[in-house]
Specification:
The protein has 79 residues and is an all-beta fold. The protein has one domain. Helix content is 0%, strand content 35%. The chain is built from no helices and seven strands. It has a five-stranded antiparallel beta sheet, with no helix packed on it. A two-stranded antiparallel sheet has the order 3-4. β5 (40-44) and β6 (52-54) form a beta hairpin. The chain is globular. The chain starts with 5 loop residues before the first strand and ends in a 15-residue tail after the last strand. The mean pLDDT is 85.
Amino acid sequence: MNIGDLVKRKNKEWYALVIGFKKTFPAMGYILPDGDTNYPVIMWLAGNSGSIDSCHRSLLEVISECHLNMPDDPRENEL
């Protein structure tokens, strides 16, 4: 799973774009290791179109891979 990939919630027809990856969990004071991709930051495309969310990668499946080199989103630590 990479930034720019189109993903779908497993067992649902909910689609989103991966826009980054969480690096911290401020409420718990936990910092993820560099390169960790277990908690993608996603932007929903339908229903809650445009809303930003995050969940564990095991809840998502990649529908289409993006092959662009996209910069990290500096806002991802705010989620």
